[in-house]
Specification:
The complex is a heterodimer of chains A (about 230) and B (about 260). Chain A has seven helices and one strand. With about 230 residues, chain A is mainly alpha-helical. The longest helix of chain A is centred in the C-terminal third of the chain and has 27 residues. Chain B is mainly alpha-helical. The chains are: A mainly alpha (about 230), B mainly alpha (about 260). The interface between A and B is large, with 50 and 74 residues.
Chain lengths: ~230, ~260
Amino acid sequence: METEVDPGPVATLPPELRQKVIDATRTEVSLSRSQVVRQTVWVVAAAVAASLVAFLAVGGARPGGRSLVLILASAAGAFSIAGLTLGVALLRGPRMLGSARGWLVLAGVTAPLAFLAWKMGVGAQLGADPTLPPDRPGFRCLGLTLAFALAPLAALLFARRGTDPAHPRSLGLTLGIGAGMAAVALVDLWCPVGHPSHLLLGHVLPVVVLGLAGVWLGHRLLAVRSR
Amino acid sequence: VASLTPTAPFITVGVSLFGRAGGDDERAPLPPTTARPAANRALASDAAGAAVFEDEEEAGEAAAAADPIRAAANAAMSRYARGEDEAFAPLYDAMAPRLHRYLVRQTRDQARADDLLQQTMLHVHRARGRFAPGAEVFPWAFAIARRLLIDSIRRGKHEVLARRDRERDGGGDGGRQEIAGNARGADELLDSKRLAHAVERELARMPEQHRVAFELIKQEGLSVKEAAAVLGTTSTAVKLRAHRAYNALRAALGNVFHGN
């Protein structure tokens, strides 16, 4: 009967592996926390500056017949939603694995809907022009939103590259949506049109596109991968 | 650098499952599970199982806070993240045995576990600058190890399955070694081996999700919350998975203790 007993697998940690790993770390440079923080600040600042330059290049904020209160209220909502979304994605507190997947997905899914609801509500309350100009279906806003979001999204992906072992796609989704929402907030300062179909095509669709791109890029860039 | 046998954690699991304390009666036959109706009722449903692991959540966090190895790993990681290169050696010494044990259990392949451990530690090295101040390093490292393991399995799925089949058929491999004898005598060693084998066999049989949740909590000492973060799911899901694994093991080990 004794011969039937299998001792099971034995985990022997080879002594030589320790020196091998330590030697490998010596040949591969890695940045300390202060260096990473400095690098990240520069990269994100450069990306935000690039978006602002692009925004100013197309004319900056334009009232377009809107009241100052409407412009401020609309932009405040858009920036708040962008900030909350990016907060869920980026603020980890004392945890390396960040927000749970459910929170990331929830933030990513609700942000565009919340923005649309906010725009419609504020427009109805503060007297936005409900008509759709025939020459403004929304393609220009769609292009601008994608253009303004490009550099910030790239910077965020760079800052978090190869660091998410748990849910890189969900993080990518939320980063894409967050960057898109920040871009939409800028576009909102520029675009006076409040018609639902224009908002859906020019302001919400690009955010959704950026979110989907974030899912793909998250899998490619944010995930921990073997080399 | 430590050499580990997985038998000890398996025995701990067995003891934990049956509420068996060490001491003189350690080798006494356990009462049949059917003779403990209160315990069985408590574990009868998934909802009850989740309730059982509610306690595990609090106990796990308290245990984590009191674990000197985790404290040493966190301290070494904090120093390493600040740029103190010499902190890598103590970080390795604190983390490598647990990570290696986990990887060996998952792969059943010593060489692959060695390789994955090396990759995991190199990822920790590369990402040291992104380590959040005050964070726990073990859940993060386990999540990295698990991700690399999944990548590895995807790349060589057929190879791993074939190897496991060979092992189950009794082929064994070079990584297997005889357990060192202990002072308690041959009978107890035999019991330990039988228990370890039963746990291993049952763990191998259960769904991967259940097994990993159970192992992270019961064998690696993570809290339910930390295991949920490692697995990218909710605490409730982890509790349910661990509970199902717990029930399966409990039933299987009951047979071992009763000589079946």
